[in-house]
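Ligand: S-adenosylmethionine. Inputs:
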Amino acid sequence: MSSYLDTEKRSVSRPIADAMGRPLHDLRISLLDQCNFRCPYCMPEAKFHADYEFLKRHQRLTYDEIIRVATSACSLGVSKIRLTGGEPLLDKNICDLIERIVKLSGVDDLALTTNGILLSSYAEKLAAAGLHRVTVSLDSIDKNIFRKMSGGKGDLEKVLAGIKAAENIGLGPIKINVVVQKAVNDHTILDLLEYFRGTGTIVRLIEFMDVGNRNGWQMNQVVPSHVLLESIQKRWALQPIDQNYTGEVARRYEYVDGSGEIGFISSVTEPFCGDCSRARLSADGMLYTCLFANQGTDLRESLRNGADDDELRDILSRIWLQRADRYSELRRPEVAEHHVLRKVEMYRMGG
Ligand code: SAM
Ligand code: SF4
Ligand code: SF4
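Predicted complex:
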């Protein structure tokens, strides 16, 4: 059986495409399912309380196991890797993993999504470990609304300091993820855009999505991106710009006055499954091929039962070749069955 060290050195790449012709380009790795926030749209406090049982250490993949999966994925075409969670910065050894992932053959983009509350103390170490860039989730520039949307855990000043620290150390261009919810934070979006205009930071406005089954999602809480776009354009002139690459999830716009870029992620009203090239690896080693999946493939079991590198690559390859997911294109919120689909929660799968 070959070791993970052999795996890390392997560089032969055989890109594959799924049943709808979509390549495997991106791998999102969830490091842990725990989080220090309780955003109601993701991990509502009432359901994720003090007694909630998160994964135990032995249930989570080790770094060696993550590296083996990532290496296999790279050999099938993955070039972009994102570390996420739960809150990935709760994993105190994350920099050790970053150092290893960034050296994998084929990886040309290594990013991290974080709620930013611990970012100022980590930014320098993350950059030194080789991380390329960070995305910070920040739903409002109004400190009370931000606090509410983090489930009472967030501190706006700390997150802004984290963003500054990341920018100063070269982890940019920083992207800011904003989940927009009707009558919760939609009236504060212009202030947030104003704050970041001209700084080089890219704000991405995300439609509130029906991920998982615990956030009480209703269609009437979604602010369609086109509505948001219209209200932004009343304040600043915007023009559409081209995608950076095929499969980019955000629709990009730039301020006509040269003050930078914003993006819209409109999974609900303008699905983009046609180009979706993302696989997700959960902290307990399940591989999912869609954010809205209700089942995945247990790679931890294969890894711990001694699957060698060829077997692992075959498993991944089989999963991807069969993939036909296009949940957002098929979503029908008005149909009762839609609400009883048993989807995997996002904090678990990795956002
Ligand atoms: N804890 C980290 C963070 O919040 O950045 C990483 C994990 S979080 C699950 C990843 C992303 O998913 C965040 O940007 C978050 O805003 C987004 N997200 C979570 N629930 C969502 C929902 N129901 N609709 C849209 N985006 C959501
Ligand atoms: Fe935690 Fe991120 Fe989910 Fe908020 S969105 S609860 S920060 S995992
Ligand atoms: Fe990709 Fe699934 Fe989202 Fe469609 S719904 S874009 S297939 S993750």
